[in-house]
Amino acid sequence: MTKILLVEDDKTIVLSLSEFLKMEGFEVKSRSGQSDALALLHEERFDLALLDLSLSEGNGFALCAAIKKEYDLPVIFLTASGDEYSTVAGFDLGADDYIPKPFRPRELVSRIKNVLRRQSGSNAVRLGDVTVDTVKGAAFKNGRDLCLSALEYRLLLVFLNNRGIVLTRGKLLEAIWDVAGDFVNDNTLTVYIKRLREKVEDDPKEPQIIKTVRGIGYKVD
Fold first, then answer.
1. Which residues contact 28 (CB under 8 A, 6 or more apart)?
2. Is 172:189 a contact under the CB 8 Å cutoff?
3. N or C: which end of the chain has fewer CB within 10 A?
4. Which of 113, 120, 135, 130 lies closest to 220 in space, CA to CA?
């Protein structure tokens, strides 16, 4: 599920927009100030940020600059400041779209999806502090090459291509069998998931990326 950070000072807009986006299938978390928004970004992974310029603390321009520098996250401005200077300044800071208020909710959803489509065209896919370069066929953690084997990399790609979906062990076995070149049994799968976790997780004993769904399988959010 696409996860959106909404940074908006107007509680009425936060409530109505959050409810609408949830009905459209998005997960939304909101904050009203710059510091609180950055603190939440440090704790959780988001797919996109919706920012107003006028915040209870800080401002949207500064927050956009920080998000682009630290998290490289798509940003859409939603603001009453629709003058040319503000619009140009927003795009100069790296904003992916700029929508003046009042806006039509369904148009916003269309623009969100458009920005996410453009973003997905990138060769790099992020999972927390792990980056997967699908062109190089390599994965990096904090810039360090994880040196994945072919089977480990294939397993990671399967999880990436099914984010938010619980995968049974049977489905995983089907997906990686052709890469191994011979039969991959259940014990082998257990070994490779353990090896992959040791490389991508901060603490493999408490995995935050490849999560176990008891009695069913595994999931990557």
1. 3, 4, 5, 6, 17, 18, 21, 22
2. yes
3. N
4. 130
Nearest-CA neighbor of 13 among 2, 3, 28?
28
What is the SS3 assignment for 218?
strand
Torsion sign (Cα): 135, 139, 142, 147: negative
- In sequence order, the β-bridge partners of residue 51 are 7, 77
What is the CATH classification number for the domain harbouring 207? Answer: 1.10.10.10
Give the separation between CA 71 and CA 140, rounded to whole angstroms: 16
Last residue of one domain, picked from the residues 87, 120, 153: 120
Specify which residues 29 forms β-bridges with. Answer: 5
**∠ CA 202-4-126, rounded to 5°:** 35
Task: Answer yes or no: do 77 and 20 share one domain.
Answer: yes
Segment 38-84, tens digit of pLDDT: 999 999 989 999 999 989 999 999 999 999 988 888 999 998 877 77
